[in-house]
Recover the amino acids of this structure.
């Protein structure tokens, strides 16, 4: 039987992309007896299944990055099924509903903010004529020639009332992959660049959260989870909340592997015993959104931590038995040359320049404080939402940025090599700590295999870090002192020439093969190692 509703996560690559929001909406609609299915689009998908099955409603989570693909899908689907209703939602459209309705064709409704209750009420209206369209909170749509924004819907108060998200289709496509999971929604932070800032924070009970983990482990064999909470220590460094989670895992005797977000100030509130218990309970990776080591930057980005907090956090949390990853924004409209120099020095001293974080650009999204500020200061023109096309207050930074975009980010041969190397030192490092956590079930000698490999990984990282650090240091010097363009081009040839990058790519490939060989006797899926 064909479902009434089809929900479509859309990937811009050939790899299916999990979207927890869509999976949660699908689960809630089916729970409420609205027949719903999920189809994971990739760039290689054909449209036959959608075209031949006359769905009544099709929904998408629309991002800036997948907007053009979704428009293409809508055009094809509407051509073969003109009566289908198209609904889009997500963070991006919540803050950009007017633009989306005006610039994308054939979208019937936008859902703003959380989607479970709103999508259900809208579905009942479209399928059965139940509800009054004017009374459905949280939607935007055209009525005759005018755009209507219905009243805002309040956030769901009790998240425990929602059924588990429906991941059955996704795990059939991608086995042994980390699954997104949530223990809370909203954020207590005030970051100027974040569309989720200052939103109401709500949490699930720890027992309900761990129930979902246990269900996924037992039913699908997936034991690795990527937590979508803005910070697991919300609100206000809630360490008791994390301790409750650790105790629940210990008492149930299960071993989930967990990736989380934390705030940099957490180092002030916990001790080594806390981290030891947390790692034993499966902590594999903590992502800290430090964004910068310059107080000048942090003020413009409205971060609650200062530069000293960020530096002390890294020094305090490194070598605790889990991966420590950094969120970083090098280029934003108000950055100056001094901040770029400070960041380069500290990233190198802490062995993070191999991740190429110096080339990270802020993405300016509608509805954020920095969006409003940059527009008012004449530094950003919202031109069809080109989120990284802003100007800089510091003209020397402007010239440096123009050079980087032209000669590195737009140079496909160079950029693709850099991306492979950067991905290795980010995503593959996460995999190493998952494997380390799994090897805890064996003896100490077995765990030492991965510890030795992590040491080799860090040494390889230091080699790449040295290249990136010196390149960026000399590049800043060149533009500070108005050196000619030729000198800047020579820097690329010195540090990022094809033979140097190929040598590191070969080392990366060889290291993965060596690890696979050493781990061949363990029941660890090879896909975790080679991806």
């Amino acid at each position: 039987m064909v479902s009434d509703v089809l929900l479509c996560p859309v990937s811009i690559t050939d790899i299916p992309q999990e979207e927890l929001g869509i999976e949660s909406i699908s689960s809630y609609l089916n729970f409420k007896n609205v027949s719903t299915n999920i189809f994971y689009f990739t760039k290689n998908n054909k449209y036959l299944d959608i075209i031949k099955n006359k769905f009544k409603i099709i929904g998408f989570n629309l991002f800036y990055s997948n907007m053009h693909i979704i428009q293409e899908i809508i055009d094809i689907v509407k051509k073969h099924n003109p009566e289908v209703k198209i609904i889009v939602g997500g963070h991006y459209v919540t803050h950009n509903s007017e633009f989306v309705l005006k610039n994308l064709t054939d979208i019937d409704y936008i859902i703003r903010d959380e989607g479970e209750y709103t999508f259900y009420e809208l579905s009942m209206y479209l399928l059965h004529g139940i509800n009054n369209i004017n009374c459905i909170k949280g939607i935007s749509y055209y009525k005759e020639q005018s755009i209507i924004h219905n009243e805002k819907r309040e956030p769901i108060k009790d998240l425990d009332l929602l059924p588990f998200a429906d991941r059955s289709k996704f795990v059939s496509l991608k086995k042994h992959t980390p699954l997104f999971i949530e223990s809370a929604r909203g954020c207590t932070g005030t970051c100027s660049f974040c569309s989720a800032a200052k939103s109401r924070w709500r949490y699930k009970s720890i027992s309900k959260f761990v129930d979902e983990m246990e269900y996924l482990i037992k039913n699908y064999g997936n034991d690795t989870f990527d937590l979508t909470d803005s910070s697991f220590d919300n609100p206000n460094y809630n360490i008791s909340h994390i301790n409750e989670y650790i105790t629940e895992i210990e008492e149930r005797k299960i071993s989930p592997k967990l990736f989380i977000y934390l705030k940099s100030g957490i180092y002030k509130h916990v001790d080594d015993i806390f981290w030891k218990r947390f790692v034993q309970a499966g902590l594999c990776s903590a992502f800290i959104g430090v964004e910068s080591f310059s107080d000048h930057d942090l003020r413009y980005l409205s971060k609650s931590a200062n530069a000293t907090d960020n530096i002390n956090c890294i020094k305090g949390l490194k070598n605790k038995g889990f991966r420590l990853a950094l969120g970083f924004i090098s280029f934003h409209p108000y950055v100056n040359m001094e901040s770029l120099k400070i960041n380069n020095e500290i990233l190198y001293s802490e062995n993070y320049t191999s991740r190429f974080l110096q080339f990270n650009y802020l993405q300016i999204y509608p509805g954020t404080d920095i969006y409003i500020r940059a527009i008012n200061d004449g530094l950003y023109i919202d031109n069809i939402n080109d989120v990284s096309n802003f100007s800089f207050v510091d003209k020397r930074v402007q010239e440096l940025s123009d050079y980087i975009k032209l000669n590195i980010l737009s140079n496909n041969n160079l950029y693709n090599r850099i991306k492979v190397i950067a991905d290795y030192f980010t995503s593959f490092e996460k995999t190493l700590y998952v494997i380390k956590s799994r090897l805890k079930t064996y003896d100490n000698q077995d765990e030492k295999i991965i510890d030795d490999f992590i040491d080799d990984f860090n040494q390889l990282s230091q080699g790449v870090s040295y290249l990136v650090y010196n390149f960026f240091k000399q590049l800043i010097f060149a533009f500070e002192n108005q050196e000619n363009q030729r000198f800047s081009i020579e820097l690329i040839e010195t540090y990022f020439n094809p033979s140097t990058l190929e040598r590191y790519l070969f080392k990366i490939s060889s290291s993965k093969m060596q690890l696979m060989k050493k781990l061949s006797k363990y029941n660890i899926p090879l896909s975790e190692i080679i991806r």
